[in-house]
Amino acid sequence: MRSATWNDIDLENGLWNIPVSKMKMKKAHYIHLSDLVVRLLKEYRQISHHKFLFKSIRTKKERYSTK
């Protein structure tokens, strides 16, 4: 889930397509998304400005700080 990109998500058909390249068993995987999840992702997409669904709070250069 943490490596999911917007390209993997088909909001029109409510489907999450996990490509072969991301699967250990080298077989594509498809997950049907509920209407609620599709609605939430459509709203989230409007404010998301990166390729991943869930951007990491850590980078190689720095760690997240609560200071």
Question: What can you tell me about this protein's structure?
Answer:
The protein contains 1 helix and 3 strands. It has a 3-stranded antiparallel sheet with strand order 1-2-3, with no helix packed on it. By secondary structure, the chain is α+β, with helices and mostly antiparallel strands. The chain has one helix at residues 35-47; strands at 9-10, 15-18, 29-32. The chain has a domain at 6-47.
Write a concise synopsis of the structure shown.
The protein is α+β, with helices and mostly antiparallel strands and 67 residues long.
Unreliable spans: 62-67
The assigned structural class equals alpha+beta
Number of helices: 1
Q: Could you tell me the number of beta strands? A: 3
Strand order of the largest sheet: 1-2-3
Largest sheet: 3 strands, antiparallel
Oligomeric state of the chains in view = single chain
Secondary-structure element order, N to C: EEEH
Radius of gyration: 14 Å
Percent helix range: 10-25%
What is the general shape?
flat
Q: What's the pLDDT, averaged over the residues?
A: 83
Gap between N and C termini = 28 Å
Strand content: 5-15%
